[in-house]
Specification:
Elements: H1 10-33, H2 41-70, H3 80-86, H4 90-105, H5 113-119, H6 137-164, H7 170-198, H8 211-236, H9 245-276, H10 279-289, H11 292-313, H12 316-320, H13 322-344, H14 352-357, H15 362-379, H16 386-400, E1 403-404, E2 409-410, E3 416-417, H17 427-448, H18 461-465
Antiparallel strand pairs: 1-2, 2-3
């Protein structure tokens, strides 16, 4: 029978409530465990990393439906409702990101503290900052609000259109193509832009021209892995009887392909910035490699997200064995969470007390040098700023003598200011991750239970039922 409907049982709801409760406990844990000088950077970093990660998975669910709809794909038809229901988290995920950004601009936390500095570079003179307009509060919040609104709207429209519309109707099937095409355009723009606005802007002096693609590949891997685990779970409960090892095999191939694509982008970004030796680029890696902890997480994520799929998922038998592919999918979900951890936890979790009050604080010296250069540029166009340049020039000369000590930052006066990073994947981070996973699954199952799991009137249903993967 194809007209099966998922029953969201009380026992499943209870388990998900427990997961969400553990998440709240994790937030309290990191809040209480944060160092006083850190402005609760770990708390807000956890909220940012998990909100962004699970929102990306949700958006990718709609991307899968849109891409296959436009490509006249039929193999995924039996699983279409799975991907549409995955998008339910997008209805709140974008607004969670908006809340985090608004709190940062309101100085509730320090995740985007460096952006605030850029906004005031040159003692209020806006011509010293090329990013002044882009990071203007109204424009920054406004565009993230537009992303969140579009994502939520498309998630609701997808659910209703593909759940209620008679896809056997030629007219309605053509409308589905227009809907899919519209989302692809929105997704292509908003997915890249939100990665710049929420993640790359944590360190506005660093940039990567392929960062949008990199994020797309990362939560693409997580989304394929999530769909595999959900389908295996539903089959264990007696649903999706027509979904067999051939369908899971195809999902496994997509997971393998995206894993290799992610590795290509990781290597391209790392290798280019390493051999180009551009300060704005290499600064990203220097900060992380100066902390032994991040050397472990960076290369640990690379091993899990690349070497494991390469030597495990490349085998045909592994992609057709539910236990093996399920284990691999769970491992990759956590592996790509660690990847986002490496991006979101470094900048907000420095010892702010040392950086603000230490005489040799590296950020202070960098800012003084930037100010001196800015004033020097102004002086080239007129003599009015000569005194200011001299004043800033003396400060810059002193800043140049700043050097990194083995245990902190040491100034020419001999004062030491430790700049320890408080970031780590501890009990709190794991609990918060579990809590967000529970919220994601709660919204998924709530949405899935509203309509039939299998779209009975889809013109490609028969093709999906007869899927047979012969190769790879």
């Amino acid at each position: 029978m194809t007209n099966e409907k998922f029953e969201f049982t009380d026992s499943l709801k209870k388990n998900l409530y427990i997961m969400m409760g553990l998440g709240l406990l994790g937030l309290v844990w990191v809040f209480l465990g944060d160092h006083e000088s850190n402005h609760h950077g770990r708390l807000w970093s956890n909220l940012l990393a998990n909100s962004y990660y699970f929102t990306g998975i949700a958006l990718f669910g709609m991307f899968v439906v849109s891409a296959t709809q436009l490509a006249y794909g039929g193999w995924q038809t039996l699983m279409k409702r799975i991907f549409i229901s995955m998008s339910a988290f997008a209805r709140i995920g974008g607004f969670l990101l908006l809340l985090i950004l608004a709190a940062g601009i309101a100085d509730v936390h320090k995740l985007y503290e460096h952006v605030s500095h850029i906004m005031h570079t040159g003692h209020g003179d806006p011509k010293y900052s090329t990013k002044l307009v882009y990071f203007a509060s109204w424009f920054w919040i406004g565009r993230v609000f537009v992303y969140a609104l579009l994502w939520a709207t498309f998630s609701i429209v997808f659910d209703r259109f593909f759940g209620e519309a008679d896809q056997s109707s030629q007219a309605k099937y053509k409308k589905s193509k227009l809907l899919a095409a519209a989302f692809i355009v929105v997704f292509a723009v908003s997915e890249s832009a939100v990665s710049w606005d929420m993640i790359m802007s944590l360190d506005p002096h660093w940039f990567s021209t392929l960062f949008g693609w990199y994020n797309f590949a990362s939560y693409g891997c997580a989304a394929w892995a999530t769909s595999i685990l959900i389908i295996i779970y539903l089959k264990s409960k007696g649903y999706l009887n027509q979904v067999n090892e051939n369908h899971v095999h195809d999902l496994g191939k997509m997971l393998f392909g995206f894993s290799i694509f992610w590795t290509y982008l990781w290597f391209s970004q790392f290798m280019l910035q390493w051999y180009a030796n551009i300060p704005e680029d290499t600064n990203f890696w220097v900060k992380r490699f100066d902390e032994p902890y991040f050397k472990v997480t960076i290369f640990g994520a690379l091993i899990v997200n690349f070497l494991f799929p390469l030597f495990f998922l490349i085998k045909r038998s592994a992609k057709r064995n539910f236990k093996m592919i399920g284990f691999g999918a769970a491992l990759l979900i956590f592996g790509h969470y660690v990847d986002f951890f490496n991006y979101t936890f470094v900048e907000p979790n420095w010892n702010h007390e040392a950086m603000e009050h230490g005489h040799g604080a590296a950020v202070k010296s960098e800012n003084v040098v930037m100010l001196a250069e800015a004033h020097a540029t102004e002086a080239a166009h007129g003599a009015a700023a000569t005194d200011a340049v001299k004043h800033e020039g003396h400060e810059a000369s002193a800043a140049v003598e700043v050097k990194h000590g083995e245990h902190g930052v040491e100034s020419k006066h001999g004062h030491e200011a430790p700049v320890k990073n408080f970031a780590s994947i501890g009990i709190g981070e794991i609990l918060v991750f579990i809590g967000f996973a529970g919220l994601f699954l709660f919204m998924f199952f709530s949405n899935l239970s509203k309509r039939n799991i299998v779209p009975e009137d889809d013109p490609y249903l028969k093709e999906s039922e007869k899927l047979n993967v012969t190769w790879a």
